[in-house]
Q: What sequence folds into this?
């Protein structure tokens, strides 16, 4: 896969907002007045699904990171993996890390869409949100926050 083709599916910084608001940069295959239309205006050629997590999932993941980062190697690893995966998903938008991987790591250049690495972020955030739920429940149990 050549560089231009591989990076045509680069995630853009503006699309990070789709983690919170699913239609931030539009959406593919939306029905409007009885006709299918593509409202997506982001950097990629098109998309049919936003990279949406939701505010609650992100909030719980952040709580999980805040309360567990220093004491849990898994939380540290998942946080670093999420950050690196996000940077890699930017592809040609943030080429420093992507170019290093594309030109120097065997078989990395075979992947045709940097945005596909978001699966690593998805899995990491779900687990981090679980740590966040545990942290909130522990705080409630210890009477540090009341409900």
A:
């Amino acid at each position: 896969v050549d560089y231009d083709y591989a990076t045509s599916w680069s995630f853009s910084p503006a699309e990070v907002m789709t983690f919170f608001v699913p239609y931030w940069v539009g959406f593919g295959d939306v029905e409007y007045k009885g006709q299918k239309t593509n409202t997506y205006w982001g950097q990629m050629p098109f998309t049919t699904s936003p990279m949406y997590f939701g505010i609650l999932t992100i909030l719980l993941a952040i709580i999980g990171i805040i309360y567990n980062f220093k004491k849990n190697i898994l939380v540290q690893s998942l946080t670093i993996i999420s950050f690196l995966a996000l940077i890699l998903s930017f592809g040609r938008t943030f080429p420093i890390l992507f170019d290093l991987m594309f030109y120097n790591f065997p078989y990395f250049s075979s992947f045709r869409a940097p945005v596909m690495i978001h699966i690593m972020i998805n899995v990491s955030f779900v687990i981090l949100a679980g740590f966040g739920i545990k942290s909130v429940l522990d705080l409630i149990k210890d009477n540090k926050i009341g409900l």
Remarks:
- The chain has a mean pLDDT of 87.
- Strands lie at 30-32, 35-37.
